[in-house]
Amino acid sequence: MDVQKSGLILSGGGARAAYQVGVLKAIHKILPKGHYNPFDVISGTSAGAINGVGLASYAENYRIGIKHLERIWLHFSPETIYRTDMAGVSHGIFRVMRSLVMGKRFRNDPVSLLNNQPLRDLLNDAIKFDQIQSAIDNGALHAVAVNCSGLESGESVAFFQGHYSITNWDRHRRVGKRTRITLDHLMASSAIPMIFPAVKLHGEYYADGAVRQLAPISPALHLGAEKIMVIGVSGNAHRRKEDVKPPSAYPSPAKVMGHMLNAAFLDSMEADVERLRRINRTLERIPESVRREADMELKPIQLLEINPSRSIDQIAGEHADEIPRALKLTLGGSGNAGQNGSGILSYLLFSRGFCKALIDLGYSDAMARKDEIRAFFSDHFEDSDD
């Protein structure tokens, strides 16, 4: 049986990305003992890029990589990601206001509500970037991509490190650039606009990769993936229109910001997955002989998507008391928008309790789909019992 290159897509979503670690942990449990890295291509955006690069750096020992990722997330706290003291939060608000009022005078100041220098320090210690090339050279990994958004060009850029055979690509507002992945790429990919500061890379300022990312699945395909696993962080799949309650008051700033973050992080991934499924259904109705004769470049792509079975906003609400007081005051109350799917709290709540709840949910959701996961990797590993 021919082995197809498998691609892993890790979407962004701030603290929501803890869910991905639980799914990856379950995949390690489901697949045969002692197996190598099951993902040939890894493409991550924002917090998903942190998980992706962390996993890529341990591609030669998937088991240790998963344990390392879980340990990082379980030791997260808001103060390890951004400054949570009143002085730090107040300074961020002052800097934003100063830039709005006197923009020209302070045009070189980073504009962000929160200072994420603690995250930079943490990632610098936690991720072994030099191990990525070793994994590629030894065949344990084909390629890894970190997706960023150029603030000047308006392009979605996939910075990738991979096999020598992979070439750069250039599509409408979507480009791929070979580079050596560094800490700056991760910081840029996770720089949520106005919340965390943009990062200068290769002569341009870049922000969160989810912004203007029209085709989140595309980078993995350009890097050679022939089948795709998507681990999303939406958790709104089971919410019905009739469950949405009429507003009792004008939307708070936290609710509006949460709505904007959902549009950036969740909508494009859901739309791209739907688009891929539609293309697959269309191609299934066209005989392969006809596709060859017409020289069609499109081909069906096996897809496995795993999303939270519970509302992540609701889970965040259950852990609202874990948010730092200074940030709670800034967001207005808990910062959680409750059941309407627009809570900013779920993006910023890097607390042990919330992260553990999401890791446990991801593990449970993936284990419930054990047979599908085994089938997805059936060409990589022989079937075996746990």
Would you mind describing this structure in some detail?
There is one protein chain. Residues 334-342 have low confidence and may be disordered. The protein has helices spanning 18-30, 47-56, 62-74, 78-81, 86-101, 117-126, 130-137, 183-189, 218-222, 253-284, 288-293, 312-318, 325-331, 345-348, 352-367, 370-376, and strands spanning 6-10, 41-45, 143-150, 156-162, 169-171, 174-178, 199-201, 204-208, 227-231, 302-306. The protein is of the alpha/beta class and 386 residues long. The longest helix has 32 residues, at 253-284. It has 16 helices and 10 strands. 43% of the residues lie in helices and 13% in strands.
Task: Summarize the helices and strands and which ones pair or pack.
Elements: E1 6-10, H1 18-30, E2 41-45, H2 47-56, H3 62-74, H4 78-81, H5 86-101, H6 117-126, H7 130-137, E3 143-150, E4 156-162, E5 169-171, E6 174-178, H8 183-189, E7 199-201, E8 204-208, H9 218-222, E9 227-231, H10 253-284, H11 288-293, E10 302-306, H12 312-318, H13 325-331, H14 345-348, H15 352-367, H16 370-376
Parallel strand pairs: 1-2, 1-9, 2-3, 4-6, 9-10
Antiparallel strand pairs: 3-4, 3-8, 5-6, 7-8
Helix pairs in contact: 1-3, 1-15, 2-3
Pfam family, one: Patatin
Domain PNPLA: 8-221
Protein name: Patatin-like phospholipase family protein
Short note summarizing the structure:
The chain has 386 residues and is α/β, with parallel strands linked by helices. It is 43% helix and 13% strand. The radius of gyration is 21 Å and the shape is globular.
Mean pLDDT: 82
Question: Measured on Cα atoms, how large is the radius of gyration?
Answer: 21 Å
Number of helices in the DSSP assignment: 16
Strand content: 5-15%
- The first-to-last residue Cα distance is 23 Å
Q: How much helical structure, as a percent, in the residues?
A: 40-55%
* Helix/strand class: alpha/beta
- Outline the low-pLDDT stretches: 334-342
Task: Please provide the count of β strands.
Answer: 10
Q: H/E order of the elements?
A: EHEHHHHHHEEEEHEEHEHHEHHHHH
Largest sheet: 10 strands, mixed
